Amino acid sequence: MQRIVVVGASLAGLRAIETLRADGHAGELVAIGAEPELPYDRPPLSKQFLKGEWDEAKIALRKQGTEDLQVEWRLGKAAASLDLGESALLLEGGERVAYDGLLIATGCVARHLPFGKGLGGVHVLRTLADARALRANLAGSPRVAVVGAGFIGMEVAASCRERGLDVTVIEPLATPLVRGLGETLGSLVAARFREAGVALRLGVGVQGFVGDRQVEGVELSDGKRVPADVVLVAIGVRPATDWLEGSGLRLDNGVVCDGAGVAAPNVMAAGDVASWAGPVGEAPRRHEHWTHAVEQGVHAAKRLLHGEVVEPLDVVPYVWSDQFDMRIAIAGEPASNDQMHVCHGSLEEGRFLALFGREGRLSGAVAFRRPRPLNAARRLIGERASFADAIAANS
Ligand SMILES: Cc1cc2nc3c(=O)[nH]c(=O)nc-3n(C[C@H](O)[C@H](O)[C@H](O)COP(=O)(O)OP(=O)(O)OC[C@H]3O[C@@H](n4cnc5c(N)ncnc54)[C@H](O)[C@@H]3O)c2cc1C
């Protein structure tokens, strides 16, 4: 394979590029990135970067530089379309780039509300440019409203509060983070936020914004208003696949791939944009986690280079989130209806491992300030351990 093109110059793309070189690809490597920056790390954008603790140099994904990788970086220009038959892409502006092998790693874009576009002080957070704009807007002690109590929303709320700002989180569900953590653990998080002085407006939606040019507040579905000078809309993301419409690739909440990341012959997808089948043919699933993007980027590169000897990827999802003094980490996919068993501490201490069981199997584990036992639980989930065996192993 002479020329491999990677579209999306971020985490999954970079890890794929490193793997291609490490595994002996001596031909051309072209990386196309919509953003002007070399690959940088997104998790600090809602945490250390937003709090002003880290600068931009600190979030580079490759501090040692990228010379050794011999990549032709094409940054600041997005891929606009893909012609599978011709094995070529068109970039914005019309330039054509041919490939022998293609890796799609275009990640996700933030969702917006249907109103408030162009209103000063209203932000989303996905890119470094978003983070720069939000951070700049936090100078001058604004009142902050966060719409959406998912991981990004709660992280930003915690970071803003740690900056000493007046913060309100608005969420239509009754509990923050309920999709990832369930009711009980979500309520623990809510208590920690209230203790830190964050106002939580739960069980209420957002109807509009107050203000003509500059946001002055948020209108709630119960008729009340939350005054705000800065609003973060954190209502989730969607896969960045617009440019692939009509290409012939199967798109269904992401680029649909087999269990090794193959979307079409010599075309792979990895990371947040990709929906991979499970290792034994389970329906394709998409994840939005840092660790998954790394594992898939590495795996897809190996599959592209070495072919079918590379078997489907069999990994257990893992995600972490830092909010105030809490490191919350999740392995597997716990669900609200699962049974829960708390070990290695207690809910009262706010330091524990919670094991989740479904139909007799260990389905997931959540750690609050308990990283080590979570790694062991992640292994057990991968081994398809029974819930009873997992409890016994942790008692
Ligand atoms: C603020 C924030 C905090 C996070 N915190 C955590 C955390 O604590 N823990 C965790 O596990 N995960 C976290 N994540 C998620 C994690 O960062 C992502 O899972 C990871 O970045 C996915 O990597 P990726 O390479 O698949 O996609 P991305 O990092 O989204 O990169 C995709 C790249 O492709 C580019 N692109 C898009 N379309 C095109 C196109 N048409 N042509 C060319 N380039 C294109 C984009 O500009 C982008 O640079 C966080 C994400 C954000 C935004």
Write the layout of secondary structure elements.
Layout: E1 3-7, H1 11-22, E2 28-33, H2 48-51, E3 72-75, E4 79-83, E5 88-91, E6 96-98, E7 101-104, E8 108-110, E9 122-123, H3 128-138, E10 143-147, H4 151-162, E11 166-171, H5 178-195, E12 199-202, E13 206-210, E14 217-220, E15 225-227, E16 230-233, E17 237-239, E18 255-257, E19 262-264, E20 267-269, E21 274-276, E22 285-286, H6 290-306, E23 318-323, E24 326-332, E25 339-346, E26 351-358, E27 361-368, H7 371-382, H8 387-393
Parallel strand pairs: 1-2, 1-7, 2-3, 7-20, 9-16, 10-11, 10-16, 11-12, 18-21
Antiparallel strand pairs: 4-5, 5-6, 8-17, 13-14, 14-15, 19-20, 21-22, 23-24, 24-27, 25-26, 26-27
Helix pairs in contact: 1-6
The structure holds flavin-adenine dinucleotide.
The site of flavin-adenine dinucleotide has 36 residues, from α1, β2, α6 and β23.
